[in-house]
Putative ca2+-binding protein
Amino acid sequence: PTQPYGQTRPNYGQQPAYGQPGANPYGASTPHAYGATPPNPYGGAPPQSAPYGYPPAPPGVAPFLWNLFAAVDQDRNGHITARELRAALINGNWSPFNEETCRLMISMFDRDNSGTIDVHEFVSLWNYIEQWKRCFQSFDRDNSGNINVTELHQALTSFGYRLSVPFCQLAITKFDRYARGSIEFDDFIQLCVMIHCLTEAFRRKDTTQTGVVTLQYEEFLQMVLNCRIGPNVK
């Protein structure tokens, strides 16, 4: 039977416990920049070279990503924290990513549970953001750099989620940091990952695929807590 709470697209969910879009997953790619935004609207312009004394890029790592990683690795220990990652990422309107989204992404790509990411994990994270950027741009129909209720409903519907407009309005309200009636790119990532995580947790309980489950109170709390960011993220 048709999934009552939405069937996610193929390749969505490759990263354990969180959602991950596949290559160009949700519609045609749009130009790299759009509107009155900088040439690389969702990532800080990478420096031309790594800081003095920083080693050269390892094999398989693009020089511009290595230079960007080196520039934000403030203590030069070869790993970056959520706060350091935040220095490398901006939204299309030049506002910085919120720290919670950065912590979320660190937790997704931190394979050794150190609370930080190395350059190879950073490359995977950067590619992940690029995929989400294409997705975001395809639904930002007015090129505002923000997603409003209508655009969010269209996006979630295209992902296969059967969610109402009032739910999307609630989601916008909860993730709208500036009370503008819309959400920015980083909040869009955080919202979609949360919905995917909770949907997968619900799906595991919904053995009959009816969209209805019976949960004990503690089971419900476990579902929510399992979708939270781990305390080891720095």
